[in-house]
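To the structural biology subgroup,

Please find below the input and predicted structure for NADPH-dependent oxidoreductase, which we are adding to the shared reference set this quarter. The sequence is reproduced verbatim from the submission form. If anyone notices a discrepancy with their own records, reply to this email rather than editing the shared folder directly, so we keep one authoritative version.
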Amino acid sequence: MRALALVCTLNASPARSSSHLLAEQVMAEFERHGVRGEIVRVADHDVRPGVGVDMGGGDAWPALREKVLASDILLVATPIWLGHPSSVCQRVLERLDAELSETDDQGRPHLYGKVAAVAVVGNEDGAHKVSADVFQGLDDVGFSLAPGAVTYWVGEAMHGTDYQDLDEVPEAVASTTRTLAVNTVHLARLLADHPYPAS
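Predicted structure (tokenized):
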């Protein structure tokens, strides 16, 4: 099985990123369950606005889309900005919206049978709201979500501490990340063996 993490930090590489760090930790947990994968920082690519598979003019989304389609699991990692997922995350969801019209020979969207999970970081309230927003978008385009399909860390509201600056991973975050990984991999394996029926 393969996993892809789309990191939706606003910062292009090589800037440090708490979202990227949490994505690395989730991917390490996936690997413990035999799932290999890749982490892509979306801000490093020219992903054009729109809801098409290819917006032309050097749009980088088609290459990222191929990585999504080749994966069994998609992890979306986003920071919280003003109580919402990042604008980069919103763009990813908008581009995934094009998949609703891309179907297999039985009329199912290509993303049916794929499993998604979410990682959220921030130093303000809103992890549940952000994960709910991203969950709904992922579900709308065909991904399945396992129980506990989110891990997150939020610092004390109105303070400047970043996840990447912590001395150690809080046990609550580590435990939640482990649960996300085991449940997500389990569901992905079930769907690989027993695909959804055509409707």
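Summary notes: Residues 171-193 form the longest helix (23 residues). The chain has a mean pLDDT of 94.

Regards,
Lab coordination
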